[in-house]
Design goal:
311 residues, mainly alpha, f41 fragment of flagellin, N-terminal domain, two-stranded antiparallel ribbon, rod-shaped
């Protein structure tokens, strides 16, 4: 097959157009900072980056859930710590009251216990944001109330868990965590074979002090000791949950950082490499352009010479 000057020129122009297109693509890559702008640029890398980005979105969702769960558990832990202190204070009042010498002293102790009771009731209705932490799943309504005249405690919550997704679902295990302690579990406990309520026992101590019932005051020391132990047991469980949540947060942060690095390697332009390639392409393009111009002049001269000879 004979290669004509026209064919050579056509191929040269195609090569120049191809070089120009590569220069344009490299320039865009450098300007945008990403290796590809559409799937057609690099289908395999594009698919990989989509998978990584999906994983990062999942990590973001889990991190948000972990933040919520941690905040809930911290609120619970703080409330339990304060409740434990209040029960301890009530017990100390009972111990001191066993040696009270008159009605005025007993009345002062009763007033102190009443203050403790109101603070304990406030803790029983503690909130995280606008949700009641000890209401089970019925988080929109205050779970506890107490009749000041009878000491009857009413629980308006339920015994259900508040579950939060805190791990990636892999089909092998439950990926949710229960973040709440229900009011029924926290404020109901056993003492001397009897099922009691923490709030009611504080109220009972107040009544005993008001009535000067020294025997009941003495008995409250034991029941409040058991209440103190019960609340501290629940507090230890919450502390363990908090530790687990913190570990999960750390793990998710590591996974997220690793995936962000992978995504960066897939997407981000290597500026040094791309700039070098661009310079090389521009140099090659200019050289090819110069050669093309030279050939065009040679062809023109040949044409003119040929024309002159023919004449």
């Amino acid at each position: 097959m004979r290669i004509t000057l026209t064919m050579e020129n056509t191929q040269t122009l195609l090569d120049l157009n191809n070089d120009q297109e590569q220069i344009s693509q490299l320039s865009q890559t450098i300007a945008s900072g990403v290796k590809f702008s559409s799937p057609s640029d690099d289908p395999y890398a594009w698919a990989q980056s989509m998978n990584v980005q999906q994983g990062l979105q999942e990590y973001k969702s889990i991190q948000s859930n972990l933040t919520f769960a941690t905040g809930w558990e911290q609120t619970t832990s703080s409330a339990l710590s304060q409740l434990s202190d209040l029960i301890s204070q009530a017990k100390q009042v009972a111990i001191s009251a066993t040696s009270a010498t008159g009605k005025n002293e007993s009345a002062a102790y009763a007033s102190e216990v009443n203050t403790i009771l109101q603070e304990a009731l406030n803790l029983a209705n503690a909130q995280y944001g606008d949700q009641y932490v000890f209401a089970g799943s019925a988080t929109s309504k205050a779970p506890f109330s107490i009749d000041s005249s009878t000491g009857v405690v009413t629980y308006n919550g339920d015994s259900k868990s508040v579950n939060v997704r805190t791990d990636i679902a892999d089909g092998s295990s439950d990926n949710t965590t229960s973040v709440n302690v229900t009011g029924s579990d926290l404020f109901t406990y056993t003492s001397g074979g009897n099922t009691l309520n923490v709030l009611n026992q504080i109220w009972q101590l107040q009544q005993a002090l008001d009535n000067g019932d020294s025997s009941a005051v003495t008995n409250s020391i034991t029941t409040l000791s058991d209440a103190f132990d019960h609340v501290n047991d629940e507090s230890a469980i919450v502390g363990g949950n908090l530790s687990d949540l913190n570990s999960q947060q750390s793990a998710i942060s590591v996974f997220k950082t690793n995936d962000q690095s992978i995504l960066s390697n897939l997407q981000d332009t290597d500026m040094t490499q791309a700039t070098t390639q661009l310079q090389q392409m521009q140099t090659a393009y200019q050289a090819a352009l110069d050669v093309t111009n030279m050939l065009d002049n040679v062809n023109l001269a040949s044409y003119l010479t040929g024309s002159s000879t023919t004449s």
